[in-house]
Amino acid sequence: MSNDHKARIRSQSPQYNKILFALLVALVIFPPLLVLPISADSVHIKTTFSQLIILLLLVSWGFAAVSDNRFGWNLKNLDSLSYAILLFLVLAVLSFLISRYKYASFEELLRYASYVGLYFLIRKHIRTERQVDLLIAAIAFTTAIVSVYGLFQRAGYDFIPWNITTGQILSMLGHPNFFAGYLVLVIPLLMTAFLAYPSWIKRTLLAATLVMATLCLLFTYSRGAFLGILPALIVLGLLLLFHLTAYLLKNKHRLIALALLMLIPLTVTVALDKQLVERASSAVELETDVTVSNQVRLVIWRGTLAMFQAKPIFGWGLGTFQIYFPQFRASDYSRKGVSHNTQHAHSEYLEVAAELGIIGLGVFLSVIVLYFARVHRALRTLEEAKPKLLLIGSSSGILANLLHNLVSVNLRWTVPAVTFWFVFGLTMVLADWPSLKHPPVSQRYQTLDKEQRSSLFIEEFYSGFANKLTKTTLYFLLCLITLLLSAMILTSFISDLYSGLAQIHLQRGKEAMAAHRAKQACYWNPYNLKAYYTLAYAYSRQGYVEDAVRIYQRLGELAPDYAQIHHNLASAYAILGQMDLAIEEARKAVAFEDAPTTHALLADILTKQEAWEQSEKEFQRALELDADFVYAWGKLGDLYLVTERYEKAIESYQKVLELNEGNVGVLFGIAQCYEEMGQWEDAQEYYEQVVDDYPNSSLAAKAKERLAHPE
């Protein structure tokens, strides 16, 4: 065989294409199904598997390109959408390079790079109609599996301790919103696949999958997903009517069947499930118990907007939202149920704006605009019904997911994100449908016997390895990059696994073992903030406060602007009696987080230093932020009692009783105030209440003594 002939067919090797395609199918099927409950993040294994598979795909592509003396794409031949996606990746790289916290930015950059790589892999290597059909079959198969599991959860059977108490289902995806984000992507595609395929067997299987997936979507109770998929389905219907009216009339029995498949589960579920109706109707409400998550989102969005306004051009840096957000969080966050450890903005667009600025958001939105512009052009030029149907379904799923991400961050989590970019790339393959045919070179390849094919396949990867220095260098670099990135991915996973074991030991009261596992987690990933927190807490529980301080100091180096770290350091220094350092750290916590708890902490430390005036100001500031902060009212009463301002102390204590109904310390404090003021009858009343209501408390014994020996 001539060298020229080998060069022409290398990149189209059936063995090479089969391996790549098998890896792509594995990427569709396995991430939604993988779970490891003992890990700190039970779905981290999904990220690990996905990134390793994508890395393997890209490296295989690189090896084949080196063997063929060319990389598979000429930049001049890229379309505007591909340029926009590459520009977004370039911005992410630049953000990483200038980021103050490179460990956080690199983790997010690795995600972005894997998703972009996946997009280009699909566009490059999905080249036949059969491949498209097989990928859609893989999506349908996976959807069926996760839907069956979701329905088992709904029936009360679950093999994984997710600790979800809201009645929502999440299948194996880790969170109801992740499951909903996956379903809104695939349901529209499976709907149009049902209309596209003539085989009654395929349609029957798709029908069963669609019914189960629709029920699961409803039982996630994800209001953001509902708001996302409803407009998308309307768009899907309009596109079908506009572009495929004749086809629908010819196959109206399929259309009627599809309508029944979607409407019957919806109608029956809405009629029987009052919680579903209540959840759906509360999507824009703010005042009911059901809408706590709405209030949480509003508080987070206000903080994210403030964060964006502080650095509107380039943002704070890729992946750094969790680190910087606390200093922009609204002061009433704790009353709205917002976690002090907020990881994401609950809006993909706001988080992109906060991390990458207006430039990054502009490029991100341009990718979306160019995507739908390409879909529009393809629908106008395609002639066959099948690609039009699948194109409408895939683009409608993308639209639903993008709308869902107005109030969610599914693109930050592996399964919804990988599926998003998979469908995103598949849409562009469908838009190029006329080019989906078996490459002519494959016919030549079929003339080779089995031994020749195997020989050529090996030669593709290793020809020139020993003889050409350039190729040898490139192979070496590819191997080195593969090893380094694989090590980073795997060490992060191992660290997360040890971190999860540490938390399990803590829950069982085995602090020493928890500390051991947490140290192992920190060893495998020196930037695992969760592991450091666990380690510091385990040390504190064992009484090793100095060791806990050392760990918190390390956390302070990794995230110096994070208020909770300074809060914990202040508490630890106070226990050690290092009050100057405690006050310094508490003031840092207040500076980064103007919240009731941080002001109360500073006030407590100042009280121990008998800085009464400053302490009073801090307690009053805490109460300005939260007038119902029981702890601050009680401690302020104690301060007034010590400083002999008895009337003010009684007012503060009475406020505690109004908010908390009963508190032995407060009752005893009021009695003391009345006794010091010479109002013995009032004091006697409260002492007696302490004895009657809390007979086993230590203060009851003191109250009895006061009643027995009044002065």
Count of individual helical segments: 32
Helix content: over 70%
* First-residue to last-residue Cα separation: 114 Å
Number of strands: 0
Can you give the mean pLDDT?
86
* Main beta-sheet annotation: none
- The share of residues in extended strands comes to under 5%
Structural class: mainly alpha
Rg, Cα atoms, Å: 31 Å
pLDDT below 50 for ≥5 consecutive residues: which ranges? 1-12, 438-446, 461-467
Identify the overall geometry: elongated
Oligomeric assembly: single chain
Provide a concise account of the structure shown.
By secondary structure, the chain is mostly helical. It has 32 helices and no strands.
Topology:
Layout: H1 3-10, H2 14-29, H3 44-67, H4 80-98, H5 102-125, H6 129-154, H7 176-196, H8 200-219, H9 223-243, H10 245-250, H11 252-272, H12 274-281, H13 292-310, H14 321-324, H15 348-381, H16 385-404, H17 414-431, H18 441-445, H19 450-462, H20 469-507, H21 511-524, H22 529-541, H23 545-558, H24 563-576, H25 579-592, H26 596-608, H27 612-625, H28 630-642, H29 646-660, H30 664-676, H31 680-693, H32 698-708
Helix pairs in contact: 2-3, 2-6, 3-5, 3-19, 3-20, 4-5, 4-15, 5-17, 6-7, 6-8, 7-8, 7-9, 7-16, 7-17, 8-11, 9-16, 13-15, 15-16, 15-17, 16-17, 20-21, 20-22, 21-22, 22-23, 23-24, 24-25, 24-26, 25-26, 26-27, 26-28, 27-28, 28-29, 28-30, 29-30, 30-31, 31-32
